[in-house]
User: Fold this.
Amino acid sequence: MCVDRKRKAKTFGTKREAVAWATDIEHVGVKPNRTLSDLIKRYIPIAEAQKGYQPVLSRLAHIDKAIGSTSIDRLTPARLSKYRDDRLKEVGSASVRSEMIHLSAMFEVAVNEWQWMDGNPLKTVKKPSLKPARRRGISQHEIDEILDNLKPMRTGKQVTDMFLLSIETGMRLGELLSLRWGNVSDKSVTLIETKNGDLRHVPLSQKAREIINRRKGIDPDSVFTLTNAQASKAFQRASVNGVHFHDARSEAVTRLSKKLDVMQLAKMIGHRDLKSLMWYYAERPEDIADKL
Assistant:
């Protein structure tokens, strides 16, 4: 008989012993010829139980489409290295690195819990190096231009409020979109869905409160009603000089650093260590020099 595409044979004195041996091998030793698609399909409920699972599902869907038909026993380091290199021609290193991390986590489950694989083939495959983290503030001139460009857009007013609120608080786009009126109080908002999964209380400046108050009465549940794609597309169209929406977070850290001490700032922004917080600090050397 064949097990894992390898022929196995053994001689017995009786037919009964031979049948018993074959039955035992079938139940214990045979690994069906499953594909990567089968693996992804079984792993999806595990992914869905995680916080912020939508991006994970999106990445797994792309992997499934690209190499899902590959048999599990043919998922060699060489095959996965080729996928990495091909994918790098389409998207950035951060996206490919993220895909490899999700794949590796899935393989670990297949090895340790399901016994579908003998080992994780990604362990010896090098992940792409990440580019240095982007660190950029936004000048007032750039802010004014972006706001002017947003004015004629159908979604412009809402994206304007989101952009200005991010500059005031350092909240990410996804965090702004997750805001519910039930989590908004007079002087702070509570973020249930954050990047690192921690619940976070964000204090509101007077200007931030005014921005949020402008949204009252528009929707009974959500503070903002756009999807991530709608908000991102509108901001990209309005942007100048390559400004990203996320740069508002860096600008917020720089502005808030003049009002709060380091520990208060880290708590407000949601960083667990000061090294991460420093990456967002983007005050110009000329402005620092003026204080000396």
